[in-house]
Amino acid sequence: MSGVFDPFDVENVRQRLAGFIAAQGLADVVVGALRRYTVGFSWVTYGFNASWRDGAKKDERDLILRVGPPNGIFAPYKASPEFLTLGALAGSGVPVPKVYWYDDSGDVLGAPFFVCDLVPGEAPIPWTHDGGPAFDDATRENLGGQFVDALAALHNFKWQATAAAGIEGSTEINGAALAQIDNWESLLQQWTRRRVPMLELAAIWLRANAPAAPRISIVHGDFRIGNFLEADGRITAILDWELVRLGDPIEDLGWICLQAWRGRSPYMCHFFTREELRDRYAALTGTEVSLDAIRYWEVFGTYKLAVMHYGATHCFEARGFNDLRMAGMGAQIPRVLLQLETAMERAA
Amino acid sequence: MNVSLERLLEGIIATLRTDVIPNVSDGYARGQAVGVIDLLNNIGPRIEWAHAPLVAAIAEKQALLRELAGLLPDMPAPAAAEADATSTAELAAERDRLDAAIGDVLALIHAPKPVGSAEARQQALGLLKQHMHDELTREMKLTRKPLFAEIASGGAGKAAR
Fold it and tell me: Nearest 5 degrees, angle CA A328-CA A332-CA A337?
């Protein structure tokens, strides 16, 4: 493009997207009006209808456009890791939307983006109005089972001979945890010049106690309530793969157990106890996971979440991103740091 | 609060101007939103929220570091402040400098060749943890429960304050 991506100039985005789709060798391309979704803290998400002709075959789809804004929390973004992973997982036991096109050059919309199918469903969120349970017991059992099924399918997925082998991460079982600590510590240093004693203490503890990975898997990186769609009692898609990487799969289990995803519910992600999660996961993957390992990755996950809060603060304070949710996350940093303290005490 | 007051007000006003007001269909409601901007423009210069908490935080961190130096005599003394901090920006810089010194002590305690005796290090770590806990607990008294549920549902559902 084409200049800077402007999420509010939807007609310009629509026209440029239509041109991009036509340039993929398709004819009679029609892109309908873009509707912006309010969900998501990072990528800008639009829904739209599109039709095209590929040779003699006509197609019409309800689609999703996801754009990584230049001043968003994890900017600079790349669409390729999510696109390649979703493409590789098509047809696996992991429910994912079908992906169509992506661009990392920024030449089309002024920012990286990809296009995938609109999957029907609603995204249950971890934050309830009264802080209580998100589900009744029957729903909890039903969706919780599917939630772990999807996670186990992801971690069992043979990624080595797929395009997902090209995504970032660590393939060393003895280095996966340390690589992640380095990664998030580096991000913290980009996002704040302040040294945060609680985070420094956590990093020391995480390095001193880093476990070896039982194996290397695709790690979703944000696998939790809020990042899947549910329709008629069925999980229809796992969403928000922007933090996907290769690494220790137990990282995803620890992330599920964060205090932030359960409010006052005793259940991880409003679904199950740590023991139930461990046992269901082990039965599906054959990987015996200790509660100590889950608690280690819970400490790491809380550390990572705290660093993300500094990222949100930085993109509001220094990058001109006016989404007030980012400033709101900045206000919650003491809460997350106290959760980190608690997670370390639990893991000690 | 980890965002400066000036930038916070600027962001709130920009959000109202760009994201909210153009999408409010009722004229009275639009006018009230502009009224919020008017008030924010006038409130901004009258608010100073960081000065007193920073002075208190600096005093606590200085006391902590003195206590740690008593426990760990081999601990390098933190660099002296360049000048008496008076403005909010200078106080924030001094707070950050002391936090860096605290981080250095944490690293020394956990270093391969740590300073001090094991008992002294244990006591020092206890003091450091207590300081961090107390500071965060104090900040939590000013931190309200996030309205993420209401935000995620576009303002629908039970209103919270």
Answer: 155
Contact between B110 and A193 using a beta-carbon 8 Å cutoff: no
In angstroms, rounded to a whole number, what is the distance separating the alpha carbons of residues A93 and A83? 17
**CATH code of A264's domain:** 3.90.1200.10
Q: Between chains, do B100 and A195 touch, taking CB under 8 Å as contact?
A: yes
Q: Is B55 on the interface with A (CB under 8 A)?
A: no
Spatial separation of the C-alpha atoms in residues A226 and A230, rounded to whole Å: 10
Q: 10-residue block means of pLDDT along chain A (348 residues)? A: 78 96 95 86 92 94 95 92 97 96 96 97 82 87 96 98 96 97 97 96 98 98 96 96 97 97 91 96 96 98 98 92 88 96 96
The number of domains in chain B is 2
| CA nearest to A328 within chain B | B146
- Report pLDDT digits (tens) over A214-257: 999 999 999 999 999 999 999 999 999 999 999 999 999 999 99
A84 shares a domain with A146? no
Host H or E run for residue A183: helix A176-191
Nearest to A337 among B99, B136, B144 (CB): B136
Q: Contact A255/A294 with Cβ under 8 angstroms?
A: no
Instruction: Assess if residue B55 is contained within a domain.
Output: yes
> Does residue A234 sit in the same domain as residue A310?
yes
Return the residue of A nearest to B102 by Cα. A197
Question: Whole-model pTM above 0.90?
Answer: yes
- Tokens linked to B155: 């303002």
Nearest CA among A140, A139, A65, A70 for reference residue A106? A70
- Give Cα B147 distance to the centre of its chain: 20
**Which residues in chain A are contacts of B137 at CB distance < 8 A?**
338
Is there a domain that residue A125 lies in? no
Mean pLDDT of chain A: 94
Q: B68: closest CA among B133, B135, B130?
A: B130
**Would an 8 Å CB–CB cutoff place B3 in contact with chain A?**
yes
**Same domain (yes/no): B41, B60:** no
Tell me how far apart the alpha carbons of residues B18 and B156 are, in angstroms, rounded to a whole number: 21
Whether the CB-CB separation of B99 and A197 falls below 8 Å is answered with: yes
Chain B: residue whose CA lies nearest to A40:
B152
Using CB atoms, pick whichever of B110, B144, B152 lies closest to residue A204: B110
pLDDT digits 0-9 by tens, B101-157: 999 999 999 998 888 899 999 999 999 999 999 999 999 998 888 887 777 666 654
In this complex, the residue of A8, A331, A341 whose CB is nearest that of residue B133 is A341
Q: What does the pLDDT read at residue B79?
A: 65
Best CA proximity match to A60, nearest among A69, A51, A68: A51
Q: Which of A117, A149, A180 is the last residue of a domain?
A: A117
